[in-house]
Specification:
Elements: E1 3-4, H1 5-8, E2 18-21, E3 29-30, E4 32-35, E5 49-53, H2 65-75, E6 79-84, H3 93-102, E7 106-110, H4 115-149, H5 154-165, E8 169-173, E9 178-181, E10 190-191, E11 199-202, E12 207-213, E13 222-231, E14 234-242, H6 250-290, H7 295-304, E15 313-320, H8 323-329, H9 334-353, E16 361-365, E17 368-374, H10 382-400, E18 406-414, H11 420-438, E19 443-445, H12 452-460, H13 470-482, H14 486-495, H15 500-507, H16 511-525, H17 532-551
């Protein structure tokens, strides 16, 4: 417990002293008592001292009292007690004015008071307080160490903390989603003031106090003490205390510091266990998608972690776009950065998928994330659900993870474990071919690629340009030279199934203008748009042109 100037005024001879300046700073904390022997004592102070003097070493007229008081206040001196009636008859007025201005309490002592009579009882009280703190520190340390050794978990830790400090406690993840709390009303809160108005409480552990409002408790704002929990150089969670019953004192902060240490150990333990489990899962997924493991062994290992591989699954692959560029610009090591990115993306995927299905399987491979989505017997609407969820995931990633986007590929359903490698390859091809067709941020299903699956195979071998029909090349050249839009006209005409009237409306041109353009296309290309074989060749050629255009982006 701290001793303030107000407390010191009740101890020994100070109880008969008179406060003549700095009344608004009587809450200054007294950390020690010293005697002023010379005016340059300011150079030897550490802060928190109760300074005793008779002003013998600085008689009236020999010292600039305003400057002297200012320096004492800046040093953090708790108060100055002046013996009146021996060397000075009264405290100089300019010293009193300066003390009121800079917030330094001045106490007037009787001339007969001995300094040792002031010092001894206050120092004894300070010493006793230190002993109390040490004993409390020891008790708290033993209690929380026992919790850590017996792996009691986060819930038990915060319940113990609540008992010790007499205020409700809550723990949140790094996104301030409640992990557990001693009061259900604390699950959600909003900050009333911005971060610049937070009150720092502990530089070492970055404790701070902020004003918040809990919807479940009404509109009345309350103060909340927040302790960021760091593990592996990153903030992983927050331990908070709501000062509903009383404001936290020094002893409470000691208790909170120990609790934060135990929470950190508990979090590190959980992270270590999760990493081991994740490695086991990733190894199993690697074997599943490669198909190089015995079926019985795979099923046995999957059963250990609750995976049911007797079901049908649709493989969904998430691939981080431009991963090499992102890692190259990072200040962190590539491995650390990649791990952090995957962790954030996995969290977003997990939160989105769990709202739509259960018993899914999720793992990672290099810079990709693999999802096995359970496929029911009735698969109608399944692909649409997966694509909608994929769009939701992409939007969340765009909002929460800066400079990161993912491409999503969806394979056909794997009816059994032996078909998982095939579905994975299809999901991978869907991303590869989808990027060729649409560029980055794609969501593509292998089943919807159609003829593009064939065209993309040629694109992979850089042979695609050889298959663009020569009549289309003539049309492209004509558009370039004459700044016309005949290729676009032809494309829209085919999309409208050869309906010239509908195509004219799509292009916002007159029907006769449309007919004129079609005649010019026939003249330039020499192709009959009514002939099926010509139309098929043109449609394939247009798809190839789109693929080549996307490849060059």
């Amino acid at each position: 417990m701290e001793i303030t100037v107000k407390d010191a005024l009740k101890i020994g001879p100070l109880s008969t002293s008179k406060t003549i300046a700095g009344h608004h700073k009587l809450d200054n904390v007294v950390k020690g008592v010293t005697i002023m022997e010379a005016p340059d004592i300011v150079n030897w102070l550490a802060g928190g001292e109760l300074l005793l003097t008779s002003l013998y070493s600085a008689p009236v007229g020999s010292l600039n009292y305003e400057d002297f008081v200012k320096k004492l206040a800046e040093k953090g001196v708790a108060a100055i007690a002046i013996k009146v009636g021996r060397f000075v008859e009264s405290v100089p007025e300019d010293m009193i004015e300066a003390a009121n201005q800079y917030g330094l309490p001045i106490l007037a002592l009787d001339a007969k008071v001995r300094f040792v009579d002031v010092m001894y009882p206050i120092m004894a009280e300070l010493f006793n307080n230190q002993v109390v703190k040490l004993n409390y520190y020891k008790v708290i340390q033993e209690r929380f160490t026992t919790l850590a050794l017996h792996c009691q978990g986060l819930e038990t830790i915060i319940k113990t903390l609540e008992e010790l400090i007499g205020n409700p406690v809550a723990a949140y993840d790094r996104n301030f989603k409640c992990l557990c709390t001693t009061n259900p009303c604390l699950e959600k809160f909003t900050e009333v003031a911005d971060l610049f108005q937070r009150e720092g409480l502990n530089d070492k552990l970055s404790f701070y106090r902020q004003i918040v409002r809990f919807p479940a408790l009404g509109e009345e704002p309350v103060s909340q003490v927040v302790v960021p929990i760091q593990a592996f150089s990153q903030v992983k969670a927050y331990l908070t205390v709501v000062e509903m019953n009383k404001k936290l004192q020094e002893m409470d902060l000691i208790c909170l510091e120990h609790a934060a240490t135990v929470v950190t150990l508990d979090l590190v333990k959980k992270v270590a266990v999760q990493e081991i489990e994740q490695k086991f899962q990733n190894d199993l997924i690697e074997n599943l998608i490669s198909g190089n493991t015995a079926l019985n062994n795979t099923l046995e290992r999957a059963a250990l972690i609750g995976w049911d591989l007797s079901k049908s699954y649709t493989i969904v692959l998430f691939d981080i776009d431009n991963i090499d560029g992102i890692l190259a610009k990072s200040k962190h090591s590539p491995d650390t950065m990649l791990q952090g990115l995957k962790s954030d993306v996995v969290a977003i995927i997990t939160n989105a998928v769990r709202r739509h299905t259960k018993n899914y399987i999720l793992g990672t491979k290099n810079d990709a994330i693999i999802l096995l989505w359970p496929s029911p017997k009735d698969q109608s609407g399944l692909l649409k659900l997966i694509k909608n969820t994929g769009q939701e995931i992409q939007e969340q990633i765009k909002k929460k993870v800066k400079k990161v986007s993912v491409a999503i590929g969806i394979g056909d359903v794997a009816l059994n474990v032996e078909e998982i490698p095939r579905s994975f390859k299809e999901a991978r091809d869907a991303i590869t071919f989808g990027r060729m067709i649409q560029g980055q941020h794609v969501i593509e299903a292998f089943s919807e690629l159609g003829v593009f699956r064939i065209l993309c195979k040629f694109a992979e071998r850089n042979e695609l340009q050889n298959f663009v029909p020569k009549p289309l090349l003539k049309l492209i050249e004509h558009d370039k030279i004459n700044e016309t839009f005949l290729l676009k006209t032809l494309e829209v005409f085919l999309e409208c199934n050869g309906n010239a009237s509908k195509a004219a409306k799509e292009l916002f041109i007159h029907y006769k203008t449309m007919l004129y353009r079609l005649e010019r296309i026939k003249e330039i290309t020499g192709m009959d748009l009514e002939a099926n074989e010509h139309r098929l060749e043109i449609e394939m050629g247009l798809k190839i042109i789109h693929l080549l255009a996307n490849e060059s982006l």
